[in-house]
Amino acid sequence: MTNNEYQALVSLLDDPDQDIFQQIEHTLITCGPDVIPFLEESWEESFNPLAQSRIENIIHKIQFDQVKNDLQLWQLHNSSDLLDGLMIINRYQYPNMNEDQVYYQLAELRSTVWRGLMYDMSAIEKVKLLNNIIFREFGLSGNTANYHDPQNSFINQVLETKKGNPISLACIYALVAQKLDLPIYGVNLPKHFVLAYMDEQSPQKVLFYINVFNRGQIMSEEDIYGFLRQLNLPLSEEYTMPCDNTSVIKRVLRNLISAYEHVDNHVKRNDIELLMNLIQ
Questions:
Q1: pLDDT for 151 beyond 90
Q2: Which residue range or ranges hold the Protein SirB1 N-terminal domain (predicted)?
């Protein structure tokens, strides 16, 4: 479709005939992201509230279709890259953000930790270094004041505000650690996502756990077992061993569903539920 054809379609978005509008909307949505600049330009030039509202909805539908497509492709071909999955979720709320800023901040954290690492450090000493850099120097912390804020689940906002929920903090911590070849992975503990530091000599053995929501507190196996017993849950590997990245992304999406329910945003809640269903 040519630029003139795009512009001709966009110019008809204020047509009061609902059937005509739906045909135009369908055509524009099938054009995909290429049509968004024309829609944005038309929105800026329009003084018609109906046309502006329709444009906003069409842009959202196009961007949401892209997020759904990207998430499905991620699960099929790129689920080994946790950060890519998190960035796809981020695009749902922030489709036009500068993603390079997220990569830059994570690289800076990684570089700072790397400068302090020494060969003969124990696992606990390495975690203490990570805790010092991530929580004390960078200032990351749990958002206890507004725990249910949806922004706690978007990695760009967590890095910007330095406030997050257990899983977003755990993701940042693990992403930094894994780039430094530290065997730290997410554990899908019910009610409270934590990290496990695995034994480098015996990769199927957990040395200890890390509670990132409590500034990197080190927890023993018995601490985790006690927590599970309080919840009347079995001491299964599902809750005590590292989970895969798809499970992490599902957990992020479940948190978002709960957060949008908490703020009564049913439209966004339903959108995120659709994303969840794509990777069941």
A1: yes
A2: 102-254
- Do 86 and 33 share a structural domain? no
Does 152 lie in the same domain as 37?
no
Distances (CA, A) of 127 to 77, 122, 130, 225, 248: 31, 9, 5, 21, 21
Domain range for residue 65? 3-77
- Domain termination site, one of 23, 54, 77: 77
Distance CA 94, CA 53 (A): 19
127-147 mean pLDDT: 97
Cα 137 to chain centroid, rounded:
23
Residue 128 and residue 9 share a domain: no
pLDDT in tens, 84-122: 999 999 999 999 999 999 999 999 999 999 999 998 999
d(CA 141, CA 11): 48
CA–CA distance from 263 to each of 46, 92, 148, 167, 259 (Å)? 31, 17, 8, 19, 7
Interatomic CA distance for residues 253 and 237, integer angstroms: 22
Residues 58 and 18 in one domain: yes
